[in-house]
Each structure stands twice: as structure tokens, then as C-alpha cells.
Design brief:
single chain; alpha+beta
Length: 176
């Protein structure tokens, strides 16, 4: 369902020539949801009525001064009880946007936040490897202990310390 909603929004944004503002407003709304416990609960809990969700979220969207298309789109998600899928819809929208602009999305999972220099170097190296512009989707996972996991399309490079330690553990079991 997330892909269908993202595709519909993408087509409308393309028709209105408002890709950038739609993308920016979607990101802003998602960031607001992720950073506010109350808003996250409102979006994700089925206990709230459509009217409660609609009233509260419309007030927030008005304050954010989002594109009218985003306002209507989020209203439709609330009406269809799909607002809890907003993070998947935003991710699908970004994939479509990347394909449209000739970019490839690389998902990067690291043990801690990467600095600008590391991000720039990673982007440059991936661009050289793949031969296309790269858009990074960055995540942190402290369980990795160190290193990175890089996913581009169906390819994955797991250079995390966690995986290396697990491989050593497996090898040690084979020895004993």
C-alpha cells in the first residue's frame, strides 16, 4: 500500500511541478512525527478517531505551512486509516524521486553518526563504484560496535565489527 500511495503522490507532485517542496514537506512532517512522542502516538495508535487525528494533524500542518498537496495527501491517509504508514510512504516516495533524477539510494548503517567528511568520502567512493549519483540513507545501530553495512539495490557489503566477531565465533566453534 505504501508504494501505491507514494506513486500517486509522486505523479501529482510531478504534474504540479512541486517535487522539491513536496519532498521537503514530507520530510518535515516525518521528522515532526519522529521527534514528538505525542504526535507519534497520535499517528500510530488506532485508539484515536479519524476526527481527532485530522484536527490535530491539520493544525500542525497549518503551522508548518506545508504545500497544499501534502495537506490533502495526509488528510487522505488519515481518512483511509493509513497515516501510520507515513514512514514507509516517505521512503517509497524518496526511492521514486531518486529513480526519477537518476540517483541510486545507498542505505548505510553505522555504529555511530558519520561526520560530513566520512559522508562525503563514502558518497564519492560509491559514486565511483556504481557510476551514478548516490543518495545516502543513513542509520545508526550501536549493536554494530564499529564498521558499516552498505546496501545498494540488491547488493550488500557488511563490514561491521559485529559480523566479523560472529564469523570468528563460528570459526572457533569449528576448531573445537
Amino acid at each position: 500500500a505504501a508504494n501505491r500511495y507514494a506513486k500517486a503522490l509522486f505523479q501529482l507532485a510531478e504534474e504540479e511541478n512541486s517535487m522539491n517542496s513536496v519532498s521537503k514537506d514530507l520530510d518535515g512532517f516525518l521528522k515532526a512525527v519522529e521527534s514528538s512522542e505525542d504526535l507519534s502516538r497520535l499517528v500510530n495508535s488506532p485508539m484515536y478517531s479519524e476526527k481527532e487525528q485530522s484536527d490535530a494533524i491539520n493544525a500542525i500542518l497549518k503551522k508548518m505551512k506545508v504545500n497544499e498537496l501534502i495537506s490533502k495527501f495526509i488528510g487522505l491517509l488519515i481518512q483511509n486509516r493509513r497515516i501510520n504508514s507515513i514512514n514507509y510512504i516517505v521512503a517509497a516516495f524518496h526511492r521514486l524521486l531518486a529513480i526519477h533524477s537518476g540517483e541510486v539510494i545507498a542505505s548505510i548503517v553505522s555504529a555511530e553518526d558519520l561526520n560530513k567528511s566520512q559522508i562525503d568520502k563514502l558518497t564519492k567512493n560509491l559514486k565511483e563504484m556504481i557510476g551514478k549519483n548516490i543518495k545516502l540513507d543513513l542509520e545508526t545501530d550501536p549493536k554494530l560496535l564499529g564498521g558499516l553495512i552498505v546496501k545498494v539495490g540488491s547488493q550488500m557489503i557488511d563490514n561491521s565489527l559485529e559480523t566479523k566477531l560472529n564469523n570468528i565465533k563460528i570459526a572457533m566453534k569449528g576448531v573445537s
